[in-house]
Amino acid sequence: MNEMMMLAVWLVGLAVVAFSVPAKALDPRTTKLAWPITGRRLRTVLGPVPVGLAEAAVLVLALVPAFPRLRFAVLGLLYAGYAVASAAMRGRPCACFGRTLVTRFGWGHAGACAILAFALLAAALRTPPTVTATSLVALVAVAGGAGASMILWRRRQHAGQRATDPARIPHIQHIVVYGSTGCPGCRGVWAQREQLAAIAARPVEFRLLEEGQSVEQAGGAIPAAIGYDRDGAAVYGPVVGLTAIRGLLTATARTGGGAPDEPPAAVRTASVEPTDAHSPRRHDPTLLRS
């Protein structure tokens, strides 16, 4: 591996981490809700806050103009951890980038992280580029990754403000609440689905996303609710989290509206409950009307 290849791997590895840190920090509520590690003890060590702090520490070390081999090695170990986590949690929503970039863990994640880990650790064992070159590339990578993350987050924020304009609520004809297995925040919503549906003035459907389905269907985060018009077009949301979902359902009752021949609000629930641990089996997407 020549010097240019080492610097390219260094640039890509740092840019991704620099993108990830502010993405989680700027949207902590969504990140916490979607974080795939559910055990209380595990979240103490591997929750969004400790993971974010560890990533930030790696970035700080990367910017120190010294110890080039150590910097490559630490970043390589971080990616090795990413690879293991991606393989172990494949199928679950990935909250590494908050709501800024939504995806699911899979073998593609694990493979890409493993390749970067191998390349970075190999560079650490060889003679790495000069301290000056490594530090300049690190500065560019961190500034670029963090800057891109903030720009995308602001765009999401502005889009979210437009999508949750209260003037849109009277146009809602039905509401879909999205969740997923392995999502800690979804369990609380599913446990209260009968009560939540009862306070709404529109039909409410509770839908679990399957393993292969993108969280983007729910607007980029779960649990979330989206209001649709008669033609099935999204006209409101998403709103994320139990409190926001309850607020939307309550707002439909306050605003009234809807089609005059609309049936009473009904609840439709997925046949499988969100669970604490990820199950590799595929879930029956059939929706059962209660």
UniProtKB/TrEMBL annotation:
Compositional bias segments (type: Basic and acidic residues): 275-290
Which segments carry the region annotation Disordered? 254-290
> Is Transmembrane included in the keywords of this UniProt record?
yes
Residues crossing the lipid bilayer are 70-89, 101-125, 131-153
- Which UniProt keywords are listed? Membrane, Transmembrane, Transmembrane helix
Protein name (Swiss-Prot/TrEMBL) = Methylamine utilization protein MauE
Give the species this sequence originates from: Plantactinospora sonchi
Supply the source organism's classification.
Bacteria, Bacillati, Actinomycetota, Actinomycetes, Micromonosporales
